[in-house]
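Figure 2 data, in text form.
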Amino acid sequence: MSRTLEGLNLGSLELFCLTAEHESFSGAAAAAGLTPPAASRTIARLEERLGVQLFARTTRQVKLTEQGRAFYVQCRQALTQLAEAERMLNGTQTAASGTVRISLPTSYGHYRILPLLGEFRRLYPGVTLDVQLSNRSIDFIADGFDLSIRARPQPDSGLVVRPIEEAALVIVAAPEYLAQRGTPRVPDDLENHELIEFVLPMSGQLVPWVFRHEGETRERLFAGPLRCTEDIIAPVTLARHGAGIAQTYRFMVEEDLRSGRLVELLPEHAGAWRPFSLVYPANRHMPQRVRVLVDFLIERLTRRNPRT
């Protein structure tokens, strides 16, 4: 065995990934059928073997360190590839069948997930996909969903949360708007502009604007005259047609920025992001039809987005 793998085993790597996804030793231990002290000792031995601290520990949760996050990406991809190889050897690549219900936020659904589902159906023609696009919270049991993708999901010991992308934010406006109203140079200048806000559908609260400056992330609330709810794509549509300035995900406006239809503003305050995660009930007996979709999405999305 290679020296770089000496002392490692699949069990410890799987437990490491579970701990990262649950952000707790107790949650990972429950999913793996272990006691929390046993899970904690296993991770401590793994950290000692690697010579790095994988988790920053507090009394309430454990969070991946920067080195831990990089290690998680590689481990999860490797475990996914091993699982796919095993299914191929067992002849189960095309055996998955049945319906998978998945709930997607409108933005991430349109720009990230829907473009992948044609490929998934070609690989797994026996799996029927029931896709809901909505920015509202769901109840997996009451609403009958198998999977969801959400931005900043709330911690829940009954759910597995697997990070898939740290989505960069960008501030944009159309050239014709800037020609009429001028270009803001600092965040304070936004007070004098037509700002397009997004309102969270569940709470009715405005989504704060996020800025990065000198290594710090800062949030700020404005009182823009244009407000949208439910569909986060609406602010982009308004900005494209010169209605004002919007902050949105870069992946939604990449083509607009390349073509000049939209202009990036305040680039020196760029670098802020929001996380998206794949969320599903913690279940050691996940149906094959759900497992193949989870593995497919994790592999495709983490390959595209190496920061996760």
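Caption note: DSSP finds ten helices and 13 strands in the chain.
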